Amino acid sequence: MNLNKGRIEFDWQRPILMKTLRTWLYLFIMVVLPVVTHAMIREEPPPLHIDSIVVVGNDVTRSEIILREIEFSPGQWIDSAEIEKAQLRITNLNLFNRVEIFPMKQTDRTILVVSVSEKLYIFPLPYASWIGPKSNDFEYGFRYSQYNLQGLNRSLAATIYGGVTRGYQLVLYDPWIIHTPGIGALLVLQHQTWWQDIPDEQGSWRRERMMGIGGISKRFTPEVTIKLLAGYQRIRVVPRFSLSGSGIDEMYIGRFEYIQDRRDLIELPHRGDFMMQSVELLRFTQPWESRYTFTIDLRQYQPLSKRWTLSGQTMAMAVTGTNPSYMELSLGESLPIRGYRNLSQLGTFMAKGGVDLRYQLYPTHYWTWDTAPTWIAKKVKNLKYGLSVSGFYEAGQSWRKTTTLESQRLMSGYGVALSVTIPYVNILRVDVGFNPEDKMKPNFKAEMRAGI
């Protein structure tokens, strides 16, 4: 480069400079320019005028259950984004193996076809799980789950279990009662017994809990739902720990929930956010006192690429009013943290945060048993399978109102998780977590969501 009377002149004969410029020019022409040009000239498909909507493949599910998830109606102009949104909303019903929406021309009419592949809706499953921390802390039982009752997306789940805890549970749920403006109903009955070690004493005490809860929900928009729950609970504990002094505490339950769900998928979300806020009231009968619990749960999912997703969660709980010792919050029980099996910190406040970086190792694929007998052929179409792996980090703590919040009491866990998409089971998730307080011993946790 030469300086001559204020002008800058490049010596184009220098071989290194020429080689560098040629390289960058080549990269620009072969890589950058095609990408920019494609982005500039790419055009969205033109809007479609939909004359009618047809649902196919729904032998059990009623068409209105599917159609009410679609926010547009025949006679409107729609674009590809609205079609994709409708497809995701129907997929999130968790009633189908696969959902496809596509337009079909018929003379001078355009028909929007909603094609669904139904799954099996009855799941009789024996199960067993180690709930720790002792080596013989196993729970086992039998669960009968039936989804999409009468083709109306209603669900029934009945469980009988034994082992370290014994009892039964019955859940009936209808997320949207037909012919109502988004009103749902819920009923939960539960009875549970287990043995609790008595602090500073020899032996243990048989604990018992009986609970019945009913409630209604209202979906105001596709993303916003409000729930109101009411019920009764009876708890049997060590007499000196009970409020009544007799060892049996009875209470009425009231709960309010506000839910805003804008995730693209409920299973393994790729983008969107979720928020849940709740207030729970327990009104003890003897003495006539109240306990309030406030909870907030925030989650955010951010796509980094087609296969990479970064997600974060923040959750907090706070208790005020009468708070018996057996109801104190415990990080690891009231609010699970991966990497820990059993945490002893108790309190009236609790908070947890975490991040998760997930990669779709094997994106969702579909398989159809083409040679299946006729009587089961429709149930073995478009079976989903896939594999995702993620790394996670979670940290949190619980504390009492009178305790100074100290950073050294922060408990953290980290590890890897494997999420397997399996036909009819949906998601099988296995976590392997570690924490610095447990000599780096791995803590395993497996979770299976069948049917929904």
Which labels suit this protein?
54% strand, three-stranded mixed beta sheet, mainly beta, 4 helices, globular, 452 residues, 16-stranded antiparallel beta sheet
In short:
Helix content is 11%, strand content 54%. The protein has four helices and 25 strands.
Describe the structure.
The chain is mostly beta strands and 452 residues long. The chain has helices at 15-41, 63-67, 80-91, 374-377; strands spanning 2-4, 7-9, 48-49, 52-56, 77-78, 96-106, 109-118, 122-130, 138-149, 154-163, 165-174, 183-197, 204-219, 224-236, 248-261, 272-284, 290-303, 308-321, 329-330, 346-347, 349-367, 383-399, 411-422, 426-434, 443-449. The model is unreliable at 1-13 (pLDDT under 50). The chain has a 16-stranded antiparallel β-sheet, with no helix packed on it. The N and C termini lie far apart (69 Å). A hairpin with a 6-residue loop joins strand 12 and strand 13 (204-219).
